[in-house]
Amino acid sequence: GMIERLDYLVALGIDAVWLSPHFPSPNWDWGYDISDYCAAAPEYGGLPAFRAFLDAAHARGLHVILDLVLNHTSDQHAWFLESRSSRDNPKADWYVWADTPPNNWQSCFDGEAWTYAPERDQYYYHYFMKQQPDLNWRNPAVREAMWDAARFWLDMGVDGFRLDAIGTIFEDPDLTPHTVPLTLAGLRRLSETAATPAERALVDRYWRDMFVHQLGGPGLHDLMKELRAVLDEYPGDRMLVGEDEDVAYLGNGRDELHLVFNFPLMRTPPPGAITPAHVRANQAARLALLDALPAAGWPCNTLGNHDCSRVATAFAPDPDHAAAAARVNAALVLTLRGTPFLYNGEEIGMTDHLIADPAHLRDTMATWYYDALVNDLQVDPAEAALRAAAMTRDKNRTPMQWSAAANAGFSPAGVTTWLPVNPNYAAGINVADQEDDPESMLNYYRRLLRVRRASPALQTGAYRPLKPRARDYLAFLRAAAEQMVLVVLNYAPARQQVRLDRRSLDAALRTPGRASQLGGRILFSSHAGGDDATGDTGLADLQLTRIDLAPYEVLIAELG
Ligand code: GLC
Q1: Mean pLDDT, range 320-326, rounded to an integer
Q2: Mean pLDDT of the chain
Q3: Could you give the 3-state DSSP secondary structure of residue 89?
Q4: Backbone angles phi, psi at 216, to 5 degrees
Q5: Distance, CA 324 to ligand 1 centroid (Å)?
């Protein structure tokens, strides 16, 4: 099935695929509990199928990035089975063991972070659920074994790794207890009921304090350098992206990771509202951090992934304009400086699907929370079901919607898919229905990606903000030696008139007198329709008089 859909991805216009973990796994955390790092899950066809997929992707010019989980393995991994079998086996020190729970640390998924293993009469540590024991990364044998696994895939030709949860690899060596007077379930519950700003501030502080000693412990930079050195043994363009926002993990810009995600872009105040002011502040802060690295770091933007609400749901403060806002946000990620990551299905406008019946939940952190709400916190089951449906990651992991056929064409009719299909597949949110409609979300993404691929400025140009105080729209230049591009995104349901004066354009272009010599050519307008929405509107007109934008219009123009 995956091989059959590669041509769809090529037609979409992307360059690379990041696969969620495809390794054998008991699936307590849907692949993020790996039981063999050098194999592919049998339900996906095992290694022969993976090799065929990789070759087929490469034959089409698509790169393949795997998800590498370093912090923990499955409790069914042979390493852990051996480690837990006795206190003196060869792998006894491959995980984090203690005679008694040395502190009150919590697992961020299922309560206590220390779980008893009767074979050793000891406790093992797990930041995630108890089926995901933390590896002891201070043990050089663990490093060697994991780097061998990385080489296994690099030898096969994979193009890099997305590194899962790297912040959780090292803990506070002093094992300092946290100070929050609540359990994990209690804190989650308080997050839901906090009403006043003071309560919400307290909740934020508690979330930070509860896990502060379990994250970002010393040692990660050396580890990332080791892994980068492994990657650099290989020819071609191989890439490491960390699931972290800390640009420190780019090292000097050349010796650790290639990318970390700009997660702060997704953390809007208030939640869910991307505003021009938020984006400008985010870019100013982010780019300053990256530029300060000795070899300058490269940005990486995204608005969605398998762990959070889908972009069309998360950033839609006004439900009447959700689809229009999703288009503006797509343009944002595809025009900002940096590598964009899209989450499967956003290109057809897929939304979250709330799973009302807790019996249908698959995400262990949600089923655990539902049980804790009902059994420990005596919350009414109906309310607990609503809370679990809202917090689970299942809502944004439902099957890709290929067509209006049964099961959205993901599985044959009559098959029960592993998560329910979002019923909106029957209302046009599917690939087949959007394929030939020039106005569809799918063709909107395709057009944007085509414009981006053809534009040196959008790929590599510097970001130069314009109109720093505009409340409703975002305007910026992308400036490369070969090309200069103007981007204007209207974030409001109202028409806008954008006046760019020569002085501020000159300042952004960093060349006095340059602006008056420039004309403009529209490369893309969300409202002009058709494939090449060009028109030779002179930018002189646009500058000197005004740019008129329709509600939620996206405009991209080449200056020259
Ligand atoms: C990362 C993954 C998430 C997973 C967790 C534990 O955050 O993105 O899906 O549950 O790590 O591996």
Answers
A1: 94
A2: 94
A3: coil
A4: 65, 30
A5: 30
For the Cβ of 32 lying below 6 angstroms from any atom of ligand 1, the answer is yes
Angle between helices 197-211 and 184-193 (to 10 degrees): 160
pLDDT for the residue numbered 397: 98
Contacts of 510 (CB under 8 A, 6+ apart): none
Tell me the C-alpha to C-alpha distance, in Å, between residue 99 and each of 102, 170, 540: 8, 20, 75
| Residues classed as catalytic | 164, 243
Ligand 1 atom nearest 307 alpha carbon: 9
Tokens in use for 303?
């608005």
* Collapsed DSSP state (helix, strand, coil) of residue 547: strand
- Pairing label, strands 63-69, 114-117: unpaired
Mutate to test the pocket of ligand 1, among 25, 28, 32 (most ligand atoms within 8 A of CB): 32
- In angstroms, rounded to a whole number, what is the distance separating the alpha carbons of residues 331 and 343? 14
Please tell me if the CB atom of residue 215 comes closer than 6 angstroms to any atom of ligand 1.
no
- Whether residue 110 has its Cβ less than 6 Å from ligand 1: no
The tens digit of pLDDT for each residue in 262-315 reads 999 999 988 888 999 999 999 999 999 999 999 999 999 999 999 999 999 999
pLDDT for position 540? 37
Q: Which amino acid is at 314?
A: A
Per-residue confidence (pLDDT) for residue 542, from 0 to 100? 53
CA distance 474 to 470: 7
Q: Say if residue 547's pLDDT is above 90.
A: no
- Ligand 1 atom, smallest distance to 305 CA: 8
Q: Whose CA is nearest to atom 7 of ligand 1?
A: 165
Q: What are phi and psi of 103, to 5 degrees?
A: -165, -175
Query: Is there a contact between 9 and 62 (Cβ–Cβ < 8 Å)?
Result: yes
For residue 28, the CA-to-ligand 1 centroid distance in Å is 11
CA distance 477 to 466: 7
User: Ligand 1, residues 29, 71, 161: which to mutate, most atoms within 8 A of Cβ?
Assistant: 29
- For 507-535, b/e burial (b = at least 16 CB within 10 A) is ebbeeeeebeebbbebbbbbeeeeeebee
Ligand 1: which residue has its CA nearest to atom 6? 32
Count Cβ atoms below 10 Å from residue 180 Cβ, excluding itself: 21
